[in-house]
Amino acid sequence: MVSTLRKRKAAAMGAGVQDDDVPGHGERFRSKIFVVSVGAGRKEFTVHEASLAKSPVFAAMCQEGFQESRERCIYLPEDDPDSFGAVIEYLYTGNFRIEHDSPTSGFTRESSLIELATIYVAAEKYHLDALKTLVVDEFSLRLVPGKPEDWLASAEVIYQAIPD
């Protein structure tokens, strides 16, 4: 599997992303490229070290001497790929979107609240306090007064995933 990750990393590095292609992003796009493999299905994300380093957890993984730094690959088997995609979007842009948040997606308000809860759990795990605040703000916008059943399942996701 590592060889597959290395091939993807090499392809990403050879894709020719130049600093000049994205004005104002300077150092971020000059930093090392990491391949982050997420979930049991190992969905892969190609991420710049400077973006990962906004999380103290990933910053530590990127330090010299760690296996992740040597291989430039990070494996997160327990994380949800959709939620992790929102984390990556936040690391690059300072904001996030819910993947399945459209009228035609078939998702309910409750499922979008559950997705927000999984993003919150990831933000907690990777010490991204500003992302947690954004998630809580978005969560509060989606709550309907007098309908506690909408948020009970998402509250359970958070309480099961975050230790005391």
List the helices and strands and how they pair.
Elements lengths: L1 H12 L19 E6 L4 E6 H4 L3 H6 L5 H5 L1 E4 L4 H13 L15 H17 L3 H14 L6 H13 L3
Parallel strand pairs: 1-3
Antiparallel strand pairs: 1-2
Task: Describe it.
The chain has helices spanning 2-13, 49-52, 56-61, 67-71, 81-93, 109-125, 129-142, 149-161, and strands at residues 33-38, 43-48, 73-76. The protein is mostly helical and 164 residues long. The radius of gyration is 17 Å and the shape is elongated. It starts with a helix and ends with a helix.
Global morphology: elongated
Rg over C-alpha atoms, rounded to the nearest angstrom = 17 Å
The count of strands amounts to 3
Average per-residue pLDDT, rounded, comes to 80
**In DSSP terms, counting alpha (H) and pi (I) runs of 4 or more, how many helices?**
8
| Order of SSEs | HEEHHHEHHHH
Q: What's the quick description here?
A:
The protein is mainly alpha-helical and 164 residues long.
Supply the key terms:
3-stranded mixed sheet, 164 residues, single chain, 8 helices
